[in-house]
Amino acid sequence: MKKKIEMIYIMLILTLNLxxxxxxxxxxxxxxxxxxxxxxxxxxxxxxxxxxxxxxRKGNYWFGSHNEGVSFFNGKSFEYFTINDGLADNQIRSIQxxxxxxxxxxxxxxxxxxxxxxxxxxxxxxxSEINWTKTEVDLWFDAGTRxxxxxxxxxxxxxxxxxxxxxxxxxxxYAVTSISIGKNNMIWFGTYAGxxxxxxxxxxxxxxxxxxxxxxxxxxxxxxxxxxxxxxxxIGNNGIGVILKSGNSIINFSKEQGKxxxxxxxxxxxxxxxxxxNTGLQSVFAITEDSQGNIWFGDRDSGAWKFDGKTLTNxxxxxxxxxxxxxxxxxxxxxxxxFGMANGGVYKFNGKTFDKQY
Length: 358
Hints:
The protein has four helices and 29 strands. The protein has 358 residues and is mostly beta strands.
């Protein structure tokens, strides 16, 4: 009889626990998995491209891949995490760290977080309340194909839709491709069809209409964005190069520098996969400012470009590579400038040339 009473008591406790879990998950889907690394090795084995690089406050490196998950490097060995370990998606688009030391991953599917033990998948269900009020701890992520952005405010993840302009061009999409935290409380969102800037109270929009781009060959196709330490906004496009906004002035920086080849040639070379013939600063997938104030651009076809304020210099990362395409550029805590390549390697700039780092 005593054993039967104990069994009933245990069943009651389990039932109550399951009920609490179900109630706590309302409004947001959180999938947790105790992480056991898929594998580890002494070299970085990604081949699909390094789409994100991040060094956490402890000095560890995180490398996000184009479709193979994420790798953690502690200085000695690499560990790998994929959807099998609870990651939301194997395509990593951004990596950040919150005030508690939790690492956050923006993926093609949803947002994941890792606290050192547990990997959580965060999925916003439905539309969130449209509340753009900013906080000091906000983390921002692209929202996949949705025309808005995910924001984590330190407590919960919300979806915020953009104020889409009326009468937009057919086929235009305002899905986020890049994000840059600027000065004076400004944050910039680069999307395929243009740029949104938000200062905490109102939006600024830069798109084909505001730039008066009427030809199909001159349409914005934003892939990277950066507000630098001087408050200048650099907008990297796939096709029309770099747009530079400085104060109230907006120019095509690539064209001003004489680094745009004719659009018909660019399209023909791209169609025929003769990417080496695209020698201009025209298809820009990454922009970063280093600690010396140089602006670096990563081009799909022509490699790396450095602008020191006066001179624009082009670098080939490695002549042996079949592709010079750069997915990401990152300066670490030791001021090493790292370049994530489409072929999966990470290169470090030594001041003159590039050394294979990982």
